[in-house]
Recover the amino acids of this structure.
């Protein structure tokens, strides 16, 4: 009985300490440029934020032009040194970054698959620009509730592939074991997060294929149609997957 009481006391103390740590306000720094306001953990090197600001500055018009839109005028960029602080701020347990509307980005300094902070930032920035494009194509005045429900139907494979391509997060297909022996992922698999994270390592080549085979205008049309391959590109998901893999085999010399 005494042992159980001792364990409960220790457990309670641990919970209290964790609660105190969880609620300690984070010491943040701020850095502003023309279109971006950076709020970042004080432990993050300020020089890396300066480098990041230059990368986002060069991407601002480039990404906007890619999607025939103009990014939000002022964008808040929140960068976290610790993952638990990111989770506390966003409630996002499974990812390393997310957006909050068209003008607020959140991400951890070092993500799961990429340690280059500029690529992580641009990845989330592309999400924000694509979201803005989708909102612009909605009837005015915008019905926020109706749009939110519609947006939930936007395909994961296209959503993530666009950001992977925009951030130049390229993975050499030869290094991806799942491409061996014709065992390439289909759109159905890439559109389901519970079946793995392959879209983050092969998404670049999906957009690369669409641009080469169909062009920029068709890519924009595909975004506006919420990834309707049949209506826009006149192919089924199965045909698209097969054609994309043929493209990869030829360009990257897969066997």
């Amino acid at each position: 009985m005494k042992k159980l009481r001792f364990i409960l006391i220790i457990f309670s103390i641990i919970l209290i300490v964790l609660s105190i740590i969880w609620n300690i306000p984070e010491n943040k720094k701020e850095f502003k440029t023309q279109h971006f306001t950076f709020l970042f953990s004080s432990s993050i090197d300020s020089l890396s934020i300066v480098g990041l600001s230059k990368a986002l500055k060069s991407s601002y018009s480039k990404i906007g032009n890619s999607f025939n839109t103009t990014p939000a005028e002022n964008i808040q960029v929140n960068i976290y040194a610790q993952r638990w602080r990111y989770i506390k701020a966003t409630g996002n347990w499974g990812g390393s970054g997310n957006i909050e509307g068209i003008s607020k980005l959140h991400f951890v300094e070092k993500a799961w698959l990429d340690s280059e902070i500029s690529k992580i930032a641009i990845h989330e920035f592309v999400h924000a620009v694509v979201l803005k494009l989708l909102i612009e194509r909605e009837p005015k005045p915008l019905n926020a509730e109706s749009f939110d429900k519609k947006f939930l139907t936007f395909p994961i494979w296209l959503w993530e592939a666009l950001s992977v391509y925009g951030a130049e997060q390229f993975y050499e297909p030869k290094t991806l074991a799942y491409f061996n022996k014709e065992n390439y992922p289909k759109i159905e698999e890439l559109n389901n997060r519970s079946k793995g994270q392959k879209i983050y390592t092969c998404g670049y080549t999906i957009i690369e294929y669409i641009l080469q085979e169909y062009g920029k205008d068709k890519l924009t049309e595909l975004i506006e149609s919420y990834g309707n391959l049949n209506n826009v590109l006149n192919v089924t998901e199965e045909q698209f997957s097969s054609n994309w893999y043929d493209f990869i085999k030829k360009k990257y010399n897969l066997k």
Q: What stands out?
A: The CA atoms of residues 36 and 75 lie 5 Å apart.
